[in-house]
Amino acid sequence: MNRKTFLKTAALAGAAGMVMPKFSLGAGLGSDKIKVAFVGLGGRGTGALINMVDADENIEIVAVGELFPERVEAAKKKLSEHLGRKYKGNGQKKFAEIWKTTGDTTFYGLDAIDKVLQTNADVVALVTPPCFRTPHIEKCLKAGKNVFAEKPVCVDATQLRKIYNELVPLADSKGLKILCGTQMRYHSAIQEAVNRVRDGQIGDIIAADFLRYESSYLHGWYDVPKNLKPDDVEYQIREWLAFRWTSGDQIVEQYVHNLDMALWAIGKLPVEVVGSGGRQIDIPYPERGDRFSNCHAQYEFEDGASLTAACRQEDNTSPYAPFKVFGTKGTLLMSFGKQRILGEKPWESDYQKKPELICEHEALFGAIRNGTPFNTLKTCADSCFVAIAGRESCYAGKRLKLAWVLEKSQQNMVPDNLKLTDKKPVEEVPVCGKYKLV
């Protein structure tokens, strides 16, 4: 497939649903209990744990890999409290039925995943900082494990090519089920809205505006031991949202949700991008990392359509999040709640009845139990690809062809042979016009 055909069609496989390659039956099929292991139990990992339990009561948590023991204990406490509220007087009994992890199956360190993969887990949930996602997916697939991989699935062009060229084919060949955490794909109202766009209800798409402005820099801040300094790898991993190499920056780590919604609705990938961005001058450096606090990217499609994509996390600013797709016959107004179409054929959806964070796990566990195809890795990688290209354009202030990012960029943000005790100097915050593309 040449690059032009790739860029035209890469998003289409997920345009109206999930990518569904053929595969063999999973390890959990035919068993009452699906055995789950977690690698990463911070805030999002704990959230995913509770979402999984709400999605399917017949699961067992059989192993955990983490760096920091206090996070495992905090996750257990939150799960126990959640089950106590849900099951009233039977919460502790339900916790004991679900939490089967012991001291022998709780592992710590950057190599914890290797030990987790030696357990009898059917599914491994990968909820570490994003910089580890690609190598962890690779390890899971080689070990024959089904995967829940939180978004993003890569942070740079080197990892992106690894997913496209090696991991997607590997997953297909082994028939493993992979759920990636772009959960808005499981929002029933958005599914209906996209189907209506596919049916021509807003006509030909000519443009889209997707903005995500938030009123604070980052979402929470862990307590870092006082002996750690910003150039300590442990500091940067604990505060992973603040550093480019650990998170990919906001446009990759968080805004990939919005890009995924936009690309799903539009149905194809852009071919060029030009962007700009920056950082509030009073954000402490290096304590609060080296990433931007705002990015604005303009994506262009081969047919002349355009996507305006902007994200911001800055203190004392107004939150604002409109998602609009403009067609020749109408406009789709998307949101995390109701969806609306204005124009010749107006329409308004109902609210989502069940949280999409639960629905996505129902889909994964259902595929495991029923032996049906389920693989969303490439669809999520497409959205990460567009996000990475946008980030690099915003850093440099340069117009880029997405094919250059995919084929030529040598960016590799994640150090090899990383140790938690290592030092890693904090990089300078990028400056438009001075940042060097690699």
Helix content: 25-40%
How does the major sheet shape up? 9 strands, mixed
For the record, the CATH class of the largest domain is Alpha Beta
- Quickly give the structural class: alpha/beta
Distance between the termini: 25 Å
Question: Which labels suit this protein?
Answer:
alpha/beta, Rossmann fold, 9-stranded mixed beta sheet, 15 helices, 15 strands, 36% helix, disordered N terminus
Outline the structure in words:
The chain is an alpha/beta fold and 438 residues long. It folds into two domains: 14-184 and 358-377, NAD(P)-binding Rossmann-like Domain (Rossmann fold); 188-351 and 383-407, Dihydrodipicolinate Reductase, domain 2. The protein contains 15 helices and 15 strands. It has a nine-stranded mixed sheet. Strand 4 (123-126), helix 6 and strand 5 form a beta-alpha-beta unit. Helix 3 packs across helix 4, helix 6 runs parallel beside helix 7 (157-174) and helix 12 packs across helix 14.
